[in-house]
Amino acid sequence: MKVLITGAGGSLGAGLAASLAPRHALRLSDVRDVETPHAFVRADIRRREEVLPLAAGMDVVVHTPAWHGIHLRSHGQGDFWDVNVDGTFNVLQSVVAHGVRRVVWISSMSVRDRNNIYGLSKVIGEELCAFYHRGAGVRFILLRPADFTPYPNRRRYGERLLRGGVDRRDVVAAAELAVEHADAAFEALPVLRQDPFTEQDVNAWAADPAAVLERHRPGAADLVRRYALSLPERIGRPDPVEARACLGYRPRYNFFSFLEDLAAHDAAGDAEAWLSGV
User: Fold this and answer.
1) Given its phi and psi angles, is residue 156 left (phi above 0), alpha (psi -120 to 50 degrees) or beta?
2) Under DSSP, is residue 58 helix (H, G, I), strand (E, B) or coil?
3) 203 neighbors 212 (Cβ within 8 angstroms)
4) 84 DSSP 8-state letter
5) List of E strands, 38-158
6) First and final C-alpha spacing in the chain
């Protein structure tokens, strides 16, 4: 297939391009130049005249760029609107103008929070997708990832995997599945990690998190203690049931896969350096 990836210089866009490249013809676009062997068009999604030609000849468009929740302190509401709302509108105008039938749009679990401009912008973006599905017959898969924004170090990455986080590699895998899934007409799918915890574990966590961890990985409590990993006061049981049913999505990474990597570096004697790196 011929696939356009907008925001191709970003974390998700770059990872998805690498995953799709062996099987698909790619056209990449970003506001900044991207060094790539694939066809590349520099375009600012806020400028409709630059965006309108992008989707010509494509089978699928994957739209990834957005300001995220981590940018709420550094960017104003106008920035979020310009990129997340107007940028989405401009890309969908290109999709319709060139008769593209399928779009993968990267939304967010933050659609549940309309009290900040980021969550609201994602709600509006999803509504734009629904509008073009109803009016122009475009088929959409909307992916709603949990938090996968870049982390300052691996310690924070691991700690986030017991809170609201999902591994970027799993998000890339979900987006790849969405690109190659031609049957969906309109789907909005949470992209979450999957933990092995039971309801009993969730209830027991507050009283003795070390015991809960040990049930699933012997030695986990010692690693957490020795490397002073921060644990949440409570845990949940994220389950990407919709994405699994629709796409066959099966996440591979969670806090226990992180502990396996940490244990390997602990054995090699460089765990502290590994935790501090990215």
Assistant:
1) alpha
2) coil
3) no
4) I
5) 39-42, 60-63, 102-106, 139-145
6) 34
Output phi, psi for 142, to 5 deg. Answer: -100, 120
Alpha-carbon distance values, 240 to 20, 32, 63, 157 (Å) = 22, 33, 21, 20
Can you read off the two tokens belonging to residue 232?
A: 């949440």
CA dist 61 and 6 (Å) reads: 8
Cβ-contact 9, 65 below 8 angstroms:
no
Q: How many residues does the chain have?
A: 278
pLDDT one-digit tens code per residue, 33-81: 999 999 999 999 999 999 999 999 999 999 999 988 788 888 899 999 9
Q: Residues 6 or more apart from 55 whose CB is under 8 A from it?
A: 4, 61, 91, 94, 95, 97, 98, 100
Residue at 83: amino acid letter? V
Give the helix/strand (H/E) hosting 202.
helix 199-204
207 CB contacts (<8 Å, ≥6 apart)?
none
* Helix, strand, or coil (residue 6): strand
CA torsion 242-244-249-255 (nearest 10°) is: 80
Read off the tokens for 169: 């590699």
Distance, in Å, from the CA atom of 223 to the CA atom of 186, rounded to the nearest integer, reads 44
- Per residue in 206-242, pLDDT (tens digit) is 999 999 999 999 999 999 999 999 999 999 999 999 9
H or E, element range at 20: helix 11-20
DSSP states of 140-200 as a string?
A: EEEEEE-B-PPPSSHHHHHHHTTTTB--HHHHHHHHHHHHT----SEEEEEE-------HH
What is the average pLDDT across 187-197?
98
